Amino acid sequence: MGRLHGKVALVTGAGRGIARASALAMAKEGARVIATSRTFERLKDLEKEGIEIHQLDVSDGEAIKTLAGKINKIDILFNCAGHVHRSNILECDEDSWDYSMNVNVKGIYRMCKAFIPKMIESGNGGSIINMSSICSSIKAIPDRFVYGTTKAAIIGMTKSIATDYISHNIRCNNLCPGTVLTDTVRSYIQTQPDPEKSMKEFIGRQKMGRLGQPEEIAHMVVYLASDESAFVTGQEFIIDGGLCV
């Protein structure tokens, strides 16, 4: 019996990166995991691991409601789907602002609004884990204007949810990673004129001299999902290799 035996976990953005690693880690710990992604093809390998898969775009409120109608019980909600827009304020047009806000902030709003009632109805509460970033109200990163703004908003939203639903035994916490070597980061680096130089620049700002791995963040997800963190809510968990020190 694993640390999450008997629990049901729903993960967004699980087609790759931290969400994918977390879905696998929670399944290994005995949870029934429901993995979602906007790109269904990315989920198919997870099905071989006994993970239930669904196509879901968190910017589609009706699709979220439909999925919620299919799930009777939920103990863990990991809101990991997100979008990274690289720009400063002068380069960020309103369409880019609206898209980032819709996916990163409103996506979590929609998911929480759809699934918190199920946690309340169960009488057992639950754990909500929201993906923020050190690039937020914690630290500014150059050319991450709207991204950092959305991640700061998620920190505020998380604290509000934690406060409002603590009496229902619903906990809500933030993950705030530094730079993690996900498929998205790899792809970005490969699009640069000098990928080797770009990788060195990413590593250069990490005091440990390396980037994080998705599996390292997944360990914290399992902790926050489990009863081991039963006395923890409304907090930011910084996992950044010392970047903020």
Tell me the span between the first and last alpha carbons. 38 Å
Assign a percent range to the helix content. 40-55%
Tell me the total number of β-strands. 7
Per the CATH scheme, the topology name is: Rossmann fold
Number of domains: 1
The side-by-side strand order for the widest beta sheet comes to: 3-2-1-4-5-6-7
Which blocks of ≥5 consecutive residues have pLDDT under 50? none
- What is the SS-derived class? alpha/beta
Characterize the biggest β-sheet: 7 strands, parallel
Assigned CATH architecture = 3-Layer(aba) Sandwich
Query: Count of helical segments?
Result: 8
Rg value: 17 Å
Provide the β-strand percentage band. Answer: 5-15%
Could you name the CATH homologous superfamily? Answer: NAD(P)-binding Rossmann-like Domain
Query: What is the ordering of alpha helices and beta strands?
Result: EHEHEHEHEHEHHHE
Shape: globular
Structure description:
With 245 residues, the chain is α/β, with parallel strands linked by helices. The chain contains 8 helices and 7 strands; from the N terminus they run E-H-E-H-E-H-E-H-E-H-E-H-H-H-E. Strands 3-2-1-4-5-6-7 form a 7-stranded parallel β-sheet, sandwiched between helices. The chain is globular. The termini are far apart.
